[in-house]
Structure formats: structure tokens, C-alpha cells
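Morning!

This is the sequence you dropped in the shared folder:
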Amino acid sequence: MWCRVLRLTPAHPYIPNSAESSKRKLVDFLGISDPEELYSDVPEVVKLDRPLEVLGPLPEQEILKRIKEKLSSVKTALDMPVFLGAGCWPHYVPAVVDFILARTEFYTSYTPYQPEISQGMLQALWEYQSMVCELTGMEVTNCSMYDWASALGEAARMAVRITGRKRVLVPKIIHPERLEVLKAYTEPAGITVEQVPYEPETGQMDLEALKARMGSDVAAVYVENPSYLGFIETRVKAIGEIAHDRGALYVVGVDPISLGILEAPGNYGADIVVGEGQPLGNHMNFGGPLLGILACRAERRFIWQMPGRIIGLTVDSEGRKAFCMALQAREQHIRRERASSNICTNEALCAVAAAVYLALLGPKGLRELCETIIYRSHYAMKRLNELPGVKAPLFKAPHFKEFVVNYNGTGLTAKAIHEGLLKAGIHGGKLLAGEFPELGQSALYCITELHTKEDIDRLAEALRGLLER
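The structure's back. C-alpha cells below.
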């Protein structure tokens, strides 16, 4: 039998870095002299100035051995109590969530480009949308964004397109990384983002400062409930009224777990709701992937400005239920240059996980989960507040899941305490000195249903030992 031998060459015309001629065509077309110019906006400090130290080629078993050796020194949330949250939180994921996600119908489908043959995925996303709407008190939601930060950026641009205004007001207490993403979304569009001060004792948004910043050019007022530092904003209805009185939209950011016990934003006047869906059945996974929530009121001016996709329910020619993609706002589809967003994918599998998780818990289970978190976090506050020089929580306000612990009276820095806890096999909270220097020596602690009484007592005793040295 004759067989044809394919002679492989080291260069290929479709791989730009495989041949000098291909690379030259690329740079000539772009009008640059060197491909490195494409990365001119990347700070030099983060660039690697040497070749990668990659060994090989190695046999598979040798690679596996080396990886295990490298990972043997890594400690995870499974190996030690972790009291770190700040945007990605440790929650228990029921086994059934992972089992359903592992089914190939979901795991390999990515996202429905041919919706008419993706009825299973479309139904799962429709269920996700339905439960998010019920949870947030809104009428419409898309079937997910990248994360809370990207959802906030899209919500701000939605508000600007709807109102024709160019200013967005946000709280001073906001996740710094979330704020940076918001600015990255808004600055190219000429949108100004301004921060509203907070009351030092309670952390609540300063309503008089908010009123002073309101004007006919404000497109939206944004508030987080619970806040980045864990306290609950108790005057959310008043903030919404101030925004609406001046013709601005009201955008609310949420931890969806908290809505098992807190009022739904739609019930106190929110026009757009954003949030992070990671707590809904998604593992921390070393920081990702996350799941952005974006919901709004059922008005044409809102729906037509939403990014991403909306899945709808209808009937086919024979009267059977049929799921369809009711809205596709992305530029890759029919809207082209009229697209409201250039977001090119979604977190479909994470959204399915959230749907399974919410369906599994139900309203009663979600409320019980919230109550457990509140009981345990308040027990942690009590234990830590008993320690000399420690104040927990720092702010005089109700809290959910997270709270600021202040060490000003201990004579130790938050960093020194954090390092001492690590040596004791405990991961403390997030250090806040770089983000909010006015809070002094403080750290943000997170308590969820995964933190047992024994974990909290161990934290308190370890901290006591550090203070008594």
C-alpha cells in the first residue's frame, strides 16, 4: 500500500511568529516596525526580560512528577481555614451541582450559536434568568456577564445611552479593582466617574454629599448592598429617591446570596441590578471564572440597551414549548456597529451552575443559608471584639458575611498579624491599608457557612497569642 508522506516545514503562513516572512507581512500591514509595539501599553515592570525557563521535552510521567513537586508546598482553602473574601468567597458547592455541570450536554456546548438545536442549554439559561429575576425583584436579566466588574461597566454605559448624560456617581467604599474596571469601560466613552464620600462612623453613603453632587448631567447613581466592606447600606430607598428626583437611574450592586434575607433591589426602586454570581454554586477556582449578573426593568429603553443575550420561551408550530434567543446585542450578530456591547462570550456554564444551585436550595434553603452566615459572622465579631485593642466590626452598621477588623489599639500592624496567622496555619482577611489608609491598621474578614465555630475559635485564640507576645 502506498501512502503519501506529509513533509512538515518549521514555518506556516497562518502562524505569524513561525516565519520571518509572515511576521514581516503582519508588521507591514499594521504599520509598525516590530511586534513588540503591540504591547507598548503594558508596563515594563510586568514584562519578562528573559526567555522562559521551560524544561523539555519530557515524558508525561516526568512532567506529572515535577508538577506534584511544585504543588506540594501550595496551601489552599481545603488545607487551612481561610477568612478571605473581598469579591470571591468560600461557599459550599453541593455535589449535585458539579455532577450536572459535568454532563457533556452542558460541559461541551460552550454557548448556543445554533439556538434551535440547543434546547437543553437554552432552557437551563432561561431557568437561570427566571431565578435571577425573582431574586433581584427585576423583570429582565441577560444570561450572564464575565463578572461583577464587567456588569457594572456595562450598566454604567447602559445608563449613559438611556439618559444621554455623562456622569456616574459611585460610593467611596467600592472594590478598587471593580472601580478600575468601571473606569476602563467608561473613560473611552467620555463618561466621568465620581465617588461620593461616606460617613466615617457607619460607612453609609453621605446623603448630603450625594445631593450636592447631583445635577442634570448625572446618568446614574450606584450603590452596593452589602458594601465591599460588608456593612449593609440602610438607606438604599432614600438614595434611589435622590437619584430619581434628578432624572438619574439607580443602579444597585449585590451579593446574590444576601438576597435570601435582604430586600430585593427591585422593591426599593432599582432600575438596573448587577452583582457577582460566584457564590451561587461556583467554586473559587483560584479566583475565576466568575459570573456577572445584570438585570433591569422591563422597559424597551432598557432592554434594547442590554449587552449579551436574553433567552425567551415561546411555542413552536405544533404548540410545544420552545426556547429561543430573544435578543442578541453583541456586534458579531446582526446588530454590527449598532451593538450595545462588544462582549464576545458569556459565562454560560457558570450560569447553569447558579441555576442548579438556586433550584436546589429554593427560597427557604437560601434564607436558612443567610441566617447561618449571619449567626456565624456575628459570633466571629463577638470573639474578636473581646481581644484587647481589637475592634470588630469597625463600622457601626449591620453586616452580612464580611466585616472590617481594626487593630489600631494592639500596637501591631495588620501585616504583622496577617503573617503571624499564616504561620499558625490560618489565612486572615484582606489587608486594607493600601486601599483605605484612613481606616488605619485594618483587614476585611469573611465568614460563611464553611466556617465552623471551631474555625472561628481557632482564629480568635491564634490572634490572642499574637497579641500576648
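Headline: The longest strand covers residues 321-328.

More detail when I'm at my desk.
O.
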